[in-house]
Amino acid sequence: MMMRTLVLCLGLVAGTFAFEAAPANRRAFLNKVAGASAAAVVASQVPLVANAEIEVPTQSTTYEFPNDWGLTYSYDSDAAKVRKHMVIATGLAKGSENMETFGKNMKKEMIDFVSYYRRFPKVAGKPSFSTLYTSINVLAGHYTSYGFKYPLPEKRRKRLYQEYAEIEKSLRRGR
Q1: Which residues are within 8 A (CB) of 48 and not within 5 positions of it... i.e. 6 or more apart?
Q2: Considering the chain, what is the average pLDDT of its residues?
């Protein structure tokens, strides 16, 4: 439905540009119509990432408390580990066992990760790093504003799970 609306809007825009005040000649008119039509077709074929549906798991009070906190100073393994810990943190419900300890460890690990890896231009330029940095800011901001005992709201959780999926894809591609 959204794709049809997008194509229709692009078609209307193309028509508007095609029928400007006085086209110089027929060739100019046909070039404008063809260009606008091609743009509409290409736009209809581009996947819309923002609309990708991510399944948000329900919050849980049971989880396996990680024992592997800290960095190994290997970007790929550290990024995957921080992402894994953030997924656990995002899924915690109110009243989870050791939630405050988990949150404190998580925040320290996120700060260590960002402060170490942002110094390296080759790492800081990777899509996985920038998306992970954004996710870290969201989770750290939640901890700063609400403390470690309160779970994330549904809207924030959905956004984070979308970013986690994007990070995982980028890491698999080595980016």
Answers
A1: 2, 3
A2: 81
The type of residue at 30 is L
To which residue do tokens 């609309």 refer? 51
Render the burial of 70-94: b for 16+ CB within 10 Å, e for the rest: eeeeebeebbbbbbebbbbbbbbee
Contacts of 156 (CB under 8 A, 6+ apart): 138, 142
- The tens digit of pLDDT for each residue in 33-74 reads 666 665 555 555 544 444 457 788 888 888 888 999 999 999
What is the rounded distance in angstroms from the CA atom of residue 7 to the CA atom of residue 37? 9
Give the burial class of 69: count Cβ atoms within 10 A of its Cβ; 0-12 exposed, 13-18 middle, 19 or more buried.
middle
Q: Over 70: is that where the pLDDT of 87 sits?
A: yes
**Residue pair 151/92 in contact by the 8 Å Cβ criterion:** yes
Cα(88)–Cα(59) distance, integer angstroms: 10
* 8 A C-beta contact, residue 80 and residue 154: no
| CB-CB contact of 118 with 95 (8 Å) | no
